Amino acid sequence: MIRIAAIVLIWILAAAAGAAAATASPWWWFAAVPCAAAAGLGSYDLLQRRHSILRNYPVLGHLRFLLESIRPELQQYFVERNYDGRPYDRDVRSLVYQRAKCIEAELPFGTERNVYAEGYEYFETSMRPQPLAEEQPRVRIGGPDCTRPYDMALLNVSAMSFGALSANAVLALNRGAALGGFAHDTGEGGLSEYHQRHGGDLVWEIGTGYFGCRTPDGGFDRARFAEKATRDQVKCVSLKLSQGAKPGIGGVLPGEKVTAEIARVREVPEGRTVVSPSYHQVFSTPRELVRFVAEMRELAGGKPAGFKLCVGSRQEFLAVCKAMLDEDTTPDFIIVDGSEGGTGAAPLEFADHLGSPLTEGLITVHNALVGVGLRDRIKIGAGGKVATGADIVKRMVQGADFTNAARAMMFAVGCIQAQSCHTNTCPVGVATQDPRRARALDVGDKSLRVQRFQAATVRSAQQIIASLGVRDLSELRPHMLRRRIDPVTVRSYGELYEWLSPGQLLIEPPESWADDWKAADPDRFTVAR
User: Fold this and answer.
1) What are the start-end ranges of the E strands in 171-317?
2) What pTM value is reported for the model?
3) Nearest to 252 by CA among 279, 218, 280, 276
4) pLDDT digits over 78-119, tens only?
5) Which of 228, 274, 281, 401 could join 253 in a cystine, given CB atoms 3.0 to 4.6 angstroms apart?
6) Tell me, what's the pLDDT at 9?
7) Are 316 and 286 in contact (CB under 8 A)?
């Protein structure tokens, strides 16, 4: 390997310079000592397991940590901020790293955010906070048709496929999930051995490519699905309708990452870009979707079954709700993916301009289910830049029961956001199928970081919930989250959004929902206006 050869060469140069210094001229020590120091540092970098970047880039990788060491002094001048006053991903990444490494994440002097800026959000705290619960709360997933319910954690690993991620990254995520007792979504790339080696709870996601349960012509193989879905480690099965970062198109895995092993897991040609279809073959109407999810639950032996989507048309989702009522069956969960969610490969226009942001999508799904009287049968998950305890509580206030994180979990296993996921050249071995790069990611160390990050983040969420004066998660309400509209106006989410009462759509739909409810047809997805 090039990096090993380079270190060996530097050792040889150091030895040669040392010999010259001893026999010819002491001036050679000025070459021998730096060469020996560089070679020694490089050897240490190759052997240590804590930093993936140093294992792949010995000696040179230290420049990154040098720049990191001066970043706190620079960030107040150079860090741009989001519309809501929050720092960009690199600051979230710092928080994830701190929690993953058990570094105290508290700072002196208080907030540096402009609390009077439009879009700033904060929670309404109570004068009498509640005691902090000792254990992580769990959410029971499983409606009346489910015979094997699952208790979901508040924060879980979101869908990231083997292929998009390296084998070591998948191993680290699953081992972290096993250590922390939370769920690991497989992504649509199939159920690989790396998902199963460490025994972490799995949510098996099926996409339009049906990888892992695929017929020779690309259809859905029910027998193969049933064989894998009934394995003990698979706790839930999920049908992916759309992804937040690229709603309307299928998943993309660049050909550079389709190795022989990936090709075998996905049952696709090696070395060729894999583009999943944009739509499912197993259903073409809302009614058929609802029936198919019920069939997935039956094939999985009664385990929770649901679907994931990035919300587009409210009318179409209401059509699915009508189908649930007509068929008298519901999914056990629905995962709402926000358009701000990430991806390893997608057209820029899709990432920037299609699909509902998580706030709007989540509130739409929650309200629709409440309005048709089905909310108590279906749990809602939320994903899309969830990284902190405040993010978890915010999404629960908006209607979610649990949350999933992808980007933050990648940070926990060492992602530095080099944004080279699609090139197969990830410098830290997270998003690559190059074995020379992937070996830098130490599974034992990074799995502990995943577990620590999840535990610390859920703990933060519990602290926030307790500070709101809430004893139980069911007591969270929209009025507890507030947003600044302008420098002198603040509104709660209870005021900013319309919230339906149970069964309201069935009795007398409010004017703002009436047209969509009337037009929703359980036997077609086509949007009629």
Assistant:
1) 184-185, 202-206, 234-240, 252-253, 274-275, 305-309
2) 0.88
3) 276
4) 333 343 444 445 577 778 878 887 776 666 556 667 788 899
5) 274
6) 78
7) yes
